[in-house]
Amino acid sequence: MKKIQFLLALIFGFTTASLAQTKPQLTAVIKTPTVQCQECKDRIERYMSHEDGIVKINVDYKKKITTVTYLTDRTNIENIKTDIANVGYDADDVTAEPDAYKRLPTCCKKPQDGGGGKKQ
Which residues form the HMA domain (predicted)? Predict the structure, then answer.
């Protein structure tokens, strides 16, 4: 009986300790001025959802902002901006990676490059 009580106390202790360790999260808003349409939104969200440390991402192409919640012990804001640039979009002061930008469909390119999103 004492062994069972000891095991239950041990399990309870480990469970409490593991729940008490909250991972530090931050939410950042990044200006993404080159997002044009729903395809841009989907492309960024799909790519970023696989990145280490990203908890949640939401691209608002009408307001041209991206809201990212991330784990501070796994990534940082500069890495996130670089990842967005690697998809082919500008992110705050980080410009889009040229080869990735060239691969974007026409609707996702800047208006001066013949692109522009469909009005929705």
Answer: 25-92
